[in-house]
């Protein structure tokens, strides 16, 4: 009888240890899934003919198990020792009107659901024409400071797709239709 109690005790101890190990593995996996960083891709950019406004299309992918929120977007320009920024608009900007339908830009905050991707069209107004010329004509990289889930990070990448006016109108029509 004592031998049977010892075996049951050993078996229950092994089951308890196994369940503890499995619970730890599951918690580590969940912790990792919550902290996957969002990736940001510049899809295209367009500068208005008067060179004062930059319209930028961003593809943001959130593979985390939590939603992500972008609360601040700033276009950076390094001038000598300091950085100077142009903030994106906090309101929707009217972009096109093709007769019956109007297309507006997106505005902050940007919410990205878990395990999904979203495309946003953001507008930066009153941008210095020298900065726009360096991005569009000299192919300088585009730097954006983003506040994502209350953490700031700077992304510097070249803007590979610079749209003409006709391409811009077509891209916005596609945005409006979807």
Keywords:
2 domains, 3 helices, Immunoglobulin-like, 178 residues, five-stranded antiparallel beta sheet, 40% strand, alpha+beta, three-stranded antiparallel beta sheet
Summarize the structure in words.
The protein has helices at 2-34, 129-136, 165-177; strands at 39-47, 53-62, 68-79, 82-87, 94-97, 102-104, 110-112, 116-125, 142-148, 151-157. The protein is of the alpha+beta class. The protein folds into 2 domains: 1-34; 39-177, Immunoglobulin-like (Sandwich), CATH 2.60.40.1890. The strands form 3 sheets. Strands 3, 4, 7, 9 and 10 form a 5-stranded antiparallel β-sheet that branches. The N and C termini lie far apart (73 Å). The relative contact order is 0.19. The model has no long low-confidence stretch (mean pLDDT 81).
Please give the structural blueprint:
Elements: H1 2-34, E1 39-47, E2 53-62, E3 68-79, E4 82-87, E5 94-97, E6 102-104, E7 110-112, E8 116-125, H2 129-136, E9 142-148, E10 151-157, H3 165-177
Antiparallel strand pairs: 1-2, 2-8, 3-4, 3-7, 3-9, 5-6, 9-10
The CATH homologous superfamily of the largest domain is named PCu(A)C copper chaperone
Total E-strand runs = 10
Task: Report the uncertain regions.
Answer: none
At CATH's second level, what is the architecture of the largest domain?
Sandwich
**Oligomer classification:** single chain
Rg result = 25 Å
Tell me about the largest β-sheet. 5 strands, antiparallel
| Amount of helix | 25-40%
- Overall shape: it is elongated
The CATH class of the largest domain is identified as: Mainly Beta
Strand content: 35-45%
Mean pLDDT: 81
**Strand-pairing-aware structural class:** alpha+beta
Number of domains: 2
Could you tell me the CATH topology label of the largest domain. Immunoglobulin-like
Ends: how far apart? Answer: 73 Å
Number of helices: 3
- The SSE order reads HEEEEEEEEHEEH
């Amino acid at each position: 009888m004592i031998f049977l109690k010892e075996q049951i005790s050993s078996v229950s101890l092994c089951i308890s240890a196994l369940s503890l190990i499995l619970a730890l593995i599951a918690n580590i996996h969940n912790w990792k899934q919550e902290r996957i960083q969002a990736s940001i891709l510049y899809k295209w950019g367009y500068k208005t003919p008067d060179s004062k406004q930059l319209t930028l299309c961003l593809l943001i992918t959130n593979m985390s198990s939590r939603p992500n929120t972008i609360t601040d977007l700033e276009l950076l320009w390094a001038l000598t020792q300091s950085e100077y920024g142009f903030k994106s608009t906090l309101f929707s900007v009217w972009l096109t009107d093709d007769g019956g339908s109007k297309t507006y830009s997106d505005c902050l905050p940007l919410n990205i659901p878990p395990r999904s991707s979203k495309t946003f069209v953001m507008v930066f107004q009153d941008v210095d024409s020298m900065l726009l010329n360096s991005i569009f004509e000299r192919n300088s990289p585009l730097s954006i400071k983003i506040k994502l889930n209350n953490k700031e990070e700077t992304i510097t990448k070249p803007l590979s797709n610079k749209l003409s006016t006709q391409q811009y109108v077509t891209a916005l029509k596609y945005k409006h239709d979807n």
